[in-house]
């Protein structure tokens, strides 16, 4: 479970002060898939980085499976898998297998566990033919598959994904969506941002909408459809922004 309570994050320079998150509170229940919606610059990535302990909130609290992101960051890191947009975190001079082995070692997997995990992920994402090639030679889609594999190789309880299907072709995107459903069946807690509304509707139990650092809606999709009298999620989102609502 992820719990955010009155979280604010401000970035200050000599010339400007920017409030990226403004008193945001919401919960991602254990075993649920929640979609994070918002236009570019709304604060989605900042929110995910705060949960991942990469950024410290200016105020407010965040707990992940009961651990504080500010007081117990190491415990939080053991529980999560993270993928941020184009930041694959891969080493170009290493092969895909070497990259995955490296990250598996960081998470304390044994040699046998690492070998089994890499083989399963290679089959799942169709990576076997280039598993032993250097990542620096890969296309964007190929890199993204390895990055997603890196994110879940240690079987984390909680998974944070920022635009996870960026660069993937249709087949790979469908494989990814099936993987999300499988992870949900395993009881994983997943929070991911996406601009693809069809993806959100197909995968998510609920959504959190953020606009200019403020939460404008959090709840189940069915309740949102009933409230807005339509199942056009893109229309609902744009409508809420136009109305300037806050949760």
From TrEMBL:
Q: Which UniProt keywords apply?
A: ATP-binding, Nucleotide-binding, Transport
Give the Gene3D superfamilies listed for this entry.
Answer: P-loop containing nucleotide triphosphate hydrolases (3.40.50.300)
Pfam families per the UniProt record, alphabetical: ABC_tran
The ABC transporter domain sits at 2-237
The superkingdom of the source organism is Bacteria
Q: Single GO molecular-function term?
A: ATP binding
**Family the entry assigns:** Belongs to the ABC transporter superfamily.
Specify the protein name.
Answer: ABC transporter ATP-binding protein NatA
Which organism does this record belong to? Pontibacillus salipaludis
Give the lineage.
Bacteria, Bacillati, Bacillota, Bacilli, Bacillales
List the gene name. natA
